[in-house]
Amino acid sequence: MKLNIAVLPGDGIGPEVTDQAVKALKAIAIEFDHSFTFTYAPVGAVAIDETGDPLPEQTLDLCKTTDAILFGAIGDPKYDNNPSATIRPEQGLLKLRKSLQLFANIRPVKAYSQLLEKSPLKEHIIKGTDISIYRELTGGIYFGEKYLSDDKNTASDLCEYSRLEIERISHLAFKAAQSRSFNVTLIDKANVLESSRLWRKVVNDVAKEYQDVTLEFLFVDNAAMQMILNPKQFDVILTENMFGDIISDEASVIGGSIGLLASASVGDKYAMFEPIHGSYPQAKGKGIANPIASILSAAMLLEHFNLQSEANRIKNAVEKSLKLHITTPDINAKYDNVTTGKVGDFIEDFISNPNETNLNFTNIHLGQSTII
Ligand code: IPM
Ligand code: MN
What we know:
Layout: E1 2-10, H1 14-32, E2 35-40, H2 45-51, H3 57-65, E3 68-73, H4 77-80, H5 89-99, E4 104-110, H6 123-126, E5 130-136, E6 146-148, E7 155-157, H7 163-178, E8 183-188, H8 194-207, E9 214-219, H9 220-229, E10 236-239, H10 241-255, E11 262-266, E12 271-275, H11 292-304, H12 308-323, H13 340-352, H14 361-366
Parallel strand pairs: 1-2, 1-3, 3-12, 5-10, 8-9, 8-10
Antiparallel strand pairs: 4-5, 4-11, 6-7, 11-12
Helix pairs in contact: 1-11, 1-13, 7-8, 9-10, 11-12, 12-13
The structure holds 3-isopropylmalic acid (IPM) and manganese (II) ion (MN).
3-isopropylmalic acid (IPM) is lined by residues 75, 90, 93-94, 245, 276, 278.
C-alpha cells in the first residue's frame, strides 16, 4: 500500500516521540513491502515562532492532501502562564480538528499485565481492563461561542450540540461495541445540562439500530468515580468533548503511565493519530519521554487502513519492550537509563526480527543494536 503521511511533531517532547513512531512505520514498510512517505510540517508553538500562526496555511493544506496525519504534541509554558495571550499553540490543534472535521477521537485504555504494579490503583481492580473511549472532538464547550465582558470580569463558553453531531459519533461507538463486548456507556450530566439531555435522547434513538448492544448511562461525576473503583465494567465509553478529555486522562492511570495512551481522531474524510499526552516541556530533549503512546498511535494509523497484521506487529513489539523492561523511566522499575531513542530502536529492531529470541540486553545499555 502507498501512503502519504503528514508528520506534525509540534512542541516539547512531540518531535522525539514522533521520531520513534516514524522509525516503527519505516520498519513496517520494509517488512510488509509498503511505500510510506513522510512530509513534515510545523504546528503549535514552533509554528507560532516560525510564522506567527499555530496552524500555518501550508500545514493545513498538507494535511488535506495526505492520507493520514501523525501528530506529536503541542503546548509551551510561555503560553500556559499567560492567560491573556491571544495566539496560543492549542488553537493550532483545535483548528486542525475542526477544519478536518475529525469528530471522533478514539482512545483505547488497557491494563498491560506487565505494568499492573506500576499503577497507583490496586492490581485486582485494574487487571483485565480494556476500554475504548469515543470522545466527540469537534463540538461542545471547546467550540461554542466564547465571551469576555469589556471589564474582563465576566466570561462564558457555550456548550452546544446538534443531533447530527451526536449521531455520527454514536454510530461509530455502537459499531465498535459490536466488535468488542457489546456494551456502550454514555457519560453525561443529564441531570443538569440541556445539552446532555439531547445526548441521551439521540443516543437512545441510535441505539435502536443496534439491538445487540446494551446501552447504559452514567453521570460524569459518578463515571469519574467508577473509573477508578471498577474500570472493568466499561467496554465502549461514548461522551462529549470535555468530559472525554477529562475521563481519558483519568483512565490513563490504569495503564500505569499517560505515556502509553494512543489515539485516533477520525472524520468522514481525514484521520489523525496522536498520543493523548501533552508536550511535557520539562522533559524535552532529555530522552526520558515515553514514545510508546506515539508508536501505538502509528499502529492505530495502520489499523485505520485495515493493515491489521502490520498493526499487530507494532503492538507485539511494544508488549515485548514492556516485558523486557526496555522502557523509559516512567514505567521502568529495573533500569533508569533506557532512553526514548533506545525504546524506539528496540521496537524498530523487533518489528524487523519478530522471531528473534537472542536478545542482547547489554547492547541496549551500550546504545548499540538491541538484537544480535
Ligand atoms: C487532548 C489535549 C487537548 C484537548 C488540548 C491540548 C487542547 O488535552 O488532546 O486531550 O483538550 O483536547
Ligand atoms: Mn487532554
